Amino acid sequence: MDAAKLNQLKQFVELCKANPSILADSSLSFFTDYIHSLGGRLPPSAYKSGESPRKPSKSFVVDESDEDIEDNEEEQQPQGTAHDEEEDEIIESDIELEGEIVEPDNDPPQKMGDRSVEVTEENRDASQEAKAQAMESISEGKLEEAIEHLTKAILFNSTSAIMYATRASVYIKMKKPNAAIRDADAALEINPDSAKGYKSRGMARAMLGQWEEAAKDLHVASKLDYDEEISAVLKKVEPNAHKIEDHRRKYDRLRKEREDRKTERERQRRRAEAQAAYEKAKKQEQSSSSSRAGSMPGGFPGGMPGGFPGGMPGGFPVECLVECPEASPVACPVGCPEDPELMAAFKDPEVMEALQDGTTLSILFLLLSLQLPSLFCYYSVA
C-alpha cells in the first residue's frame, strides 16, 4: 500500500476521532455504512439533526435466510453446550497422616545364601550355633555383630525361614526397612505361614509409610501368632490405612461421577445432533411437499383438501372434471356438469374418503365396487 495514501488515511481517522461531526456529511455515507456493516456504532454528533442513530447491522457480509440461520444455530448448539460444561481435572487433596517414617536404606543387598545347596547335618548344627551367638549379641545391643552371626547361620542353612525372619527383625531395630523386607520376603518364600516373616515385613513397611501394605501384613501375622507388639503397631498403622482407603474411594467415586457426566453429555450431544438432523430433514420434506402441492398423487392437479363443494381449491372447478373437450380423441362418458350420477357420487362419503386418500388405485377400486362407470371411465382415461 502506498505510504502517502496510508498516512492520509491515518490523518483522516485522527480527524474523525477529534471531530466526529464531520461523519454527518452525506459524502461520507459510504464510510459510515461500512462502519455499521462491521457492527460499529457512531457517536451522536456524527448524525444530522433529527436523525436517530442506527443500530449495528445483524448481517455483516452475507445475508442468510431465516431457515439457514435456524439450521446453523441448531447445528452449533450441541457443540457449544458440551464445551460450556467441560469440567476441570480432579486434583486430589493431601492426606493428613500420623506416625513417623524413616529414610529408606540404600545399602547393597545382604548375603542371602544358596537355597539349592543341600544342607548337611553338620551345616545345620553350625547354623544353630551361629544363631545362638546372634541372640546373645542382640541381648547385649550389639546389632551389627548379631547381623554377622545371623548371616553365617543363613549361609550354613539357606533353607531356614526362621533365620531370615530373625535377621529381618534385627534390621528393623537398626532402622533398615528395605533390608528387613528382603529377608522377610525370603522367609515367606520358604514358609508362606511364617508369622515372624509377616510381622517383620509389616513393621518394615510401616517404617517406610506404606500404611495399607503394613496393615495387611500385620493382620495376617496377628492371625497366625498374635502378640502385643503386633497389636501396638496396628493401632498406629490402621488409622492411616483407613484414611488412605477412604481418600482413594472418594476420588475414585468422583472420577467415576465425572466420567458418567461426560458420557451423559456426549449422549445428549449426539441426541441433540440427531434431533437437529431430523428436524432439518423434516423441514426439507415439508418444503418439498409444499412445492409438489400443484399436483395430487394419483392424477388431479391442485389436490383436494377437505372436499370440494362447488370446486377444488387446489386446481379447477368441478365442471372441469366432466367437461368433454372436442379436441380430445377419447369421448368422455361422464356427460354434462349436471350428470345426476356424478353429482350423487360427490355426496357419497366413501367416494369422498377415497378422493381424500389420493391414490388412483384406491379411487378406481371404490368406483368399481360402487358400480359408478362414469367416474371410473374418467379416472381410467385420465
From TrEMBL:
Record-linked Pfam families: HipN, TPR_8
Comp. bias (Basic and acidic residues): 255-285
SMART domains given in the database record: TPR
UniProt region (Disordered), positions on chain: 43-118, 255-308
Lineage: Eukaryota, Viridiplantae, Streptophyta, Embryophyta, Tracheophyta
Compositional bias ranges of the Gly residues kind: 296-308
This protein's UniProt keywords: Repeat, TPR repeat
UniProt xrefs under InterPro entries: Hip_N, TPR-like_helical_dom_sf, TPR_rpt
SUPFAM superfamilies listed in its UniProt record: TPR-like
Protein name per its UniProtKB record: HSP70-interacting protein 1
